[in-house]
Amino acid sequence: MQKNVSPIDKIPPFGKTVALGLQHVLVMYTGTIAIPILLGNAIGLSLDNIIVLINTNLLISGIATLIQTIGFWKFGARIPLIQGCSFVALTPVIMIGQQYGLNYIFGAIIVCGIVIVIAAPIFSQLLYFFPPVVIGSLITIIGISLIPTAARWLGGGDPAVADFGSLPNLSLGLATMVIVLLVHVCFRGFLANSSILIGLLGGTVIATIGGYTDFSAINTAPWFALSRPLAFGIPQFSPIPILLMLVAMIVIMIETIGVSITIGNIVDRKATPKLLANTLRGTGLSAILGGIFNSFPNNTLMQNACLISLTNIKSRHVVTFSGIILILLGLFPKLAIIVAVLPPPVLGGATIVIFGITIVAGIRELSHVSYEDTHNTIIVAVSISIGILPMSLPLLFAGIEGPFKMVLQNGVFMGAIMAVLLNAILNRRPKTLTTAVKR
Questions:
Q1: Domain region containing 250
Q2: What is the Cβ-side half-sphere exposure of residue 269, based on CA atoms within 13 angstroms?
Q3: What is each CA distance from 187 to 13, 19, 108, 181, 193, in whole angstroms?
Q4: CB atoms inside a 10 Å sphere around CB 408
Q5: Are residues 165 and 155 in contact, defined by beta-carbon separation less than 8 angstroms?
Q6: pLDDT, tens digit, for every residue of 173-189?
Q7: pLDDT digits (tens, 9 = 90+) for 232-285
Q8: How many domains does the chain have?
């Protein structure tokens, strides 16, 4: 019955959908719950309040994913696009939380969500400024920016602890990576497509046998917890927090455009201005819901886009099921704890493969770019170099204070803006912009 159905709209068998949907969740899960943990510790929240933030972030991430994959009216991309809490927003939420309080964070998120919904049709027209030379540079920078996260997980998660980077941690990550590679290379079909999931499970089993896992938190976690809106009080509004959050949301919109174009290429659905406008409206709506339900801004995640490339499973319904899993994790804390006990080195070993594929996706996009008789070589060289600066030496901009520092410390934003500006200036002729690619 599905012979003439687009690969995006095909519904895989239920068991396959469950496994592949769970695989997507495991890849993005730790990053999503890290934001409320880091914020809570930075502003001195109690453990109970941090748990509330974790539950609501999972819930809203799931709802945001459903908005994007299922869609309604002019909201949602209707492609396999998963949403998760964005690290781009970490700096502004900590700054606002420390100086103003949680209520001002959620107030700023609501206002920015409304702004995105209104501005989505305008922002989507910027597709003209994102030819392959810009998209390829942006994806490559995103992939490189993810590697330090994989390295932290590989070492044990927390560089401050004594056993960080120990031989057992590194060996556990290596064993997980080997399992992923063996399954992907030695098998075909469903098993090969589930190589990340199998690697994570295999690594966790090895960690359990070696005594490197702790499941005690599962016993104390409640079975069910309903996240109520405005749990921390009525949202408050002030110009400075709103401006700080708006800077972060602009970065998120730029990343969303880049990842959406990439996913569109992977699943053979061109990212038109209409699709991008619907995607951005969905991002804005999820921000509004997040501000009401005590969550933080969501972003479109590149690692999950590259997981689609790795498995070649283009169905948006697989990612829809990922959204359902995220909602269940947000409603049932005991399930969330089970997923959270994945040892960081295991996650690091698996994500080395995925984040590496992100870099390869950028290189592949750049391989289609014409470098002869164009300025594309200098555009790629400068934009990627600028994008890598903040992550290669984080202290570089330590002497700069205020919102400008937040911009300079974000390599993805810096690289993207540089690529867009250089392309607009150096390839300013319309003919160059539209023919800079040899397909």
A1: 14-357
A2: 21
A3: 19, 16, 49, 10, 9
A4: 15
A5: yes
A6: 999 999 999 999 998 87
A7: 889 999 998 898 888 888 888 888 888 898 898 888 888 899 999 999 999 999
A8: 1
